[in-house]
Amino acid sequence: MGRHIHFVSFLRRSPWGGSEELYSKAALWLQQHKAQVSVSMKWWPEAIRHPRVSELQNLGVEVSFWGGRYTFLRSWCTQGINRVIQLIGCFPPIHTMAYAVRDADLVVFSSGGNSFPSDPVRTCQQRGQKYVLIIQSVSEATWPRDTEVAEWRAIYQGAEAAFFVSRANRESTVCQLGFDDPKFQVVVNPNNASWETPFTWPADTERAEWAFVGRLEPGHKGVDLLLRAFSRARWRDRAVHLNLYGNGFSEQALTRTKSMLGLDAQVTFRGQVSELDQIWQRNEMLILPSRHEGLPLVVTEAMLYGRPCLVTNVSGNAEQLEDGVTGFLAVGPTVDAVDEALERAWIERHRLRDMGLAAYESIRNRIPRDPVHVFCELLLQAATAPEAEHSTNFSEEFIALKS
């Protein structure tokens, strides 16, 4: 066996998400190329675990679970206790999660955001283990408190590399940390669309169809902004229909919002659809009015299918498309901005096919054909690189912070 690479996922709110694609596919690639691979992820009941977990196990990847069946109860109790501690202000907060950090040549910490639990990082430092960070999404509206910045800086300074999925996420984190480093790198997430997908276009119908694809979580994906913009009077008699694909913890609330806004005839919730062909055979454009992002997989996938995208100018949304050429850019995550971009798309609807073809060609010049292979080579370089000079200093600083 070659080098031992251990992946730790910090995803807690759902069994799977876009943040899991990069590390899980990297684990599969490395296992198939004779590395020793193990994965630690949050425990979920078998009935709702993602199929990728079984795929990892069937190929020989050792999968362990942190948390456990009583995670929710412990988490709820811990939040209450920490709230009391915060009010009293004389004890450090307590932690309940054991993230199962294995002894390996390289530990890969994967997070949906740019903050990381300190305990598993400290474990790596006490063992003298190398680690890298994967940052899948950054909210420009969320900053670390002054009491947290020193710990953030120590975690990033001690890493062999920090991998961001968009330039905007990297820039935001650098600003929040107050320092830059060449080891902060931008990588490309894998996606579920085939590079060989031929360019096709939906059949002409009396009514155009546009699609939102993503989790039904307004605080992240901004679905409410789309519904509120689309409820304005001028859209009532226009021959366009919105299809919302996905599920999430606000699905019922958004269904009520749709009805309250009088959109039952103009908007349809299609649920979770695993086959991308089913989405893009009928829809002419992707709409993603996010409030924050990394660089959304659905944008890359839509462009690989030859569809223009309408996105908000947050995080990495704007990095793959050109406004007015391969899509439409709303200046910000507001109802007015989304409405203005929708209006431009309606006015330019006769150009959507040409824009889709431009997107189809453009995206193939922007991303590697096999981003997982590229990423795995970076991981293997980190695993075999000489010890960094900062490791000892970081360990001393970190232990001082935690003592």
What features would you highlight for this structure?
403 residues, alpha/beta, Rossmann fold, 2 domains, 7-stranded parallel sheet, disordered C terminus
Care to describe what's here?
- The chain is α/β, with parallel strands linked by helices and 403 residues long.
- It has 2 domains: 4-188 and 370-402, Glycogen Phosphorylase B (Rossmann fold); 208-366, Glycogen Phosphorylase B (Rossmann fold, 3-Layer(aba) Sandwich).
- Helix content is 40%, strand content 16%.
- It contains 15 helices and 13 strands.
- The chain has helices at 20-32, 51-58, 71-88, 118-127, 146-158, 167-177, 218-221, 223-230, 251-260, 276-280, 297-304, 335-347, 352-366, 371-384, 390-402; strands spanning 4-9, 36-42, 62-66, 106-111, 130-135, 161-164, 184-186, 208-213, 240-245, 267-271, 285-288, 309-312, 327-330.
- The strands form 2 sheets. The chain has a 7-stranded parallel β-sheet, sandwiched between helices.
- Helix 1 packs across helix 14 (371-384) and helix 8 packs across helix 12 (335-347).
Helical amount among residues, as a percent range?
40-55%
Structural class call reads alpha/beta
CATH class of the largest domain: Alpha Beta
Counting H and I runs of at least 4 residues, what is the number of helices? Answer: 15
Q: What is the domain total for the residues?
A: 2
- Give the mean pLDDT: 89
Nearest-angstrom radius of gyration? 22 Å
The number of distinct β-strands equals 13
Query: What is the CATH superfamily of the largest domain?
Result: Glycogen Phosphorylase B
* End-to-end Cα distance: 38 Å
- CATH fold category name of the largest domain: Rossmann fold
Unreliable segments (pLDDT under 50, ≥5 consecutive)?
Answer: 90-96, 390-403
Q: Report the CATH architecture of the largest domain.
A: 3-Layer(aba) Sandwich
